[in-house]
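Everyone, carefully examine this protein record:
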Amino acid sequence: MKMPVVKEWGSWAVFFSSCMAGLIAGLLRRPWATGRDFVLVTVSAILGLALLVNSKNPLASALRAKVKRGHVQWFLFFALSGLALLMPFLIEGIQTFPIFSLLVFSYAALLLLGREHNMFAELNGFALLTTAAPVVYFSVTGEMSWKLYLAVTVFFAAAVFKVRLIIKKTPFPRGLMVLYCAAALAVFHFLNVPVLLLLPFIENITTSVWMKEAKLRNTGNTELIKAVLFIILVGLFWR
């Protein structure tokens, strides 16, 4: 049985973008000035999270397949290896981060129910992927940032509505996209997060208002460009 690898490249883009956002926001705190040794903990945390992300496919396959042994073995390999690499982070962050296990259990339950492509399952999945931002931030600084987690999650969750907008092209998802962008602006203002980080949402709004034919591959490339722009904006304006 070949090693299962998550081939949803959009998921990897969100994951590594969240890691970069957490790393940049953390480095802006100048942790070296306090003598914090964060390099090995951060690298280990990113690798551990990547293995946990990759455990999703064998878990989903194990839940669906009649012959489960191989899928379960791969799931345990990725999950246990990921947790082992996360141990340096967990030793320090164990009191803060167990709440995210609720997202793990709810996502697993949705997989068990066969609702992997349900909108709530996709939003749950994005909320899991973006936990990389506060994990990396904590690894760098030793502090939790709910503001960072919410900002990154709100930004990337827009892709769930964007894909539905491209597929359906009906008034409801178009209006929902505009409302989501407005709600994101309100959330950022409430959290005291620079609203300039939402500059890429201009594309979401223009796509909603002036709908054009677009392929999902082109949409994926556009979302990747917006993710890169978001990371750059974090580096310029995060506080």
